[in-house]
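SAMPLE LOG
Freezer: B-3
Tube label: C17
Construct: single chain, 467 aa
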Amino acid sequence: MTVTLRKSALLAAAGAFLLAGPALAQRPKLSEETMKFVSVDAPVVAITNVKVVDGTGAAPRAGQTIVLSDGKITALGPSATTRAPAGARVIDGTGKTVIPGLIHMHEHMFYTILIGKSYGYVAESYTRLYLAGGVTSLRTAGAMHFAGDMHVRDAINRGDQPGPWMDTTGPYINGPGRFPQLMDIKTPEAAVQAVNFYADQGAMSFKAYMNITRAELGAAIKAAHARGLKFTGHLCSVTVREAVDLGIDNIEHGLGAASDFKADKKPDVCPTGESVYEPRKVNDLLDYMVAHKVAMTSNLALADTAREKPGFDVYAPDVQKLYESNSRGRASLPPGSPPPARLTEQVKIDKQFYDKGGLLMIGTDPTGAGGVVPGFSNLHELELRVEGGFKFEEIVKASTMNAATYLNRADKIGSLAVGKQADVVLIGGDPTVNVRDVRNVEVVFKEGYGYDPKRLIDSVRGKAGLY
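STRUCTURE (predicted):
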């Protein structure tokens, strides 16, 4: 490349500041089209007598009032002493709950057309569905259409279309494999070149995929870190322990994709066979990750699609047929069945990592065979973990403050606190008592604008998965 690494880093930093500035400094003026999805738009909004789960992991607090003004949280405290300002739009939160806007960290803007071979770009419908499900910030965790993700990100930041704030991950850094829409990185030098090229275009993070050597991964991580960018990975040819030693920042899919537990593992080769999660080896690896401050992003909804696919009916009829074709021969479990063993095992590992002080984060990965629906499944991720032993406030923290901390945005988002951005989800009911109430999202405030989930969902119902 003709631009030196030092000069590239300076250009990328300046570009990132300019791109992020409007979204962080002041909320955008929404376009007429975006305003169609806003149901609460007032200079000052006060939600009174509501239960607050603040994203810090603290116990829920009942009988609270939260005040939103000019895109910020300007007051939060007991309703007896925290009054709604004169002229405020007052929402009675009796019997309701507020949580911070979800920040989910393994999301995508593409749909599986042919497993392992072809993916369609569906950002228009997905961004609306994510926002309807309370997701106000996300990381794309790998791009099939990087330019498209960049344009969508910028349009959302300008207020031209509804959707979450996006940490746009560059195209997958991957060696030769079975995915024809991904790059084929064959040398460490090529990995560095790819990182620098896409960082210059505005990539905000990077992700390695299954087929990559340790030398290539190490070179890519070093190049990303030189640009001040973080690096994650869906690993296979490289073990989690090896990636930790190479300086990776985050591991995707919990330990579900880790090849550390496969008997036939050879250096730099993605093995076959099932993982055997021996408790001692799992414990040791989690301790190693925590000691090296490596985060872990977990997604479980994909493991539950044989039992439950929340929101699946919003997909276009042809997309639903496509899923059935992709899933032919897969077991289908009747309603009320216990969760699959793999899911139960992964929840246990997630909780173990969380309890050790590990930075657990949550995502959905709406790919696989295509049965995971954005927005709906983001909420289902919370349900699955509470049903598996997490407290509701713990999984909210993993879904909000932990992710904000990883993204270096915890001073602006991730928890409900005075001075922070007014990203707030109002839920009808009390998911601290019945976690399934989390599905009753009534209003999603992003930067103080209150979006109507029903309008967002209805705008793509029967068409999602096509665009």
